[in-house]
Amino acid sequence: MDQLPLGRDALLRVGGLIRQIHDASEGVKLPATDGWKMLLPAEEPDLMCHNDLAPWNLIMGERWVFIDWDAAGPSTRLWDLAYAAQSFGLLFDEQPVAEAALRLRAVVDGYGADAAMRKALPEALVKRTAAMYDLLESSYRRESSPGPTCT
User: Fold this and answer.
1) pLDDT tens digit string along 34-81?
2) Domains, the chain
3) Cβ distance 18 to 84 under 8 Å?
């Protein structure tokens, strides 16, 4: 996807699409979580989630579709949304804070996050970003890929 940063309307749509995925997953019986090898496990998973909702995994066309489901597994709405909000919001050092805040809000508004989720999101963003950093750093030191591999 070479269209970053996305505008407000597109980010609202992204948030809504994520919500649809999460709502659809509610009907899926969560398998025992002890056998899963989650790269970035969430505390107390209660839902099957994508776990890699990012611009590079979104196909935009007549329909919008998330691809690359190899990291899917037990997680939480908050953990999944935190990563999506960070990646789609372009919450990186070089981004102007006011613009990043508007993008973040658009994703969260599109998702329809309630007050409790909005309150918990800043801490989840910090934890999720730190977990990703630690994963990438340890993978670099081991000279290995951090993601799932096909054997």
Assistant:
1) 678 888 889 999 999 999 999 999 999 999 999 999 999 999 999 999
2) 8-30+42-136 (1.10.510.10)
3) yes
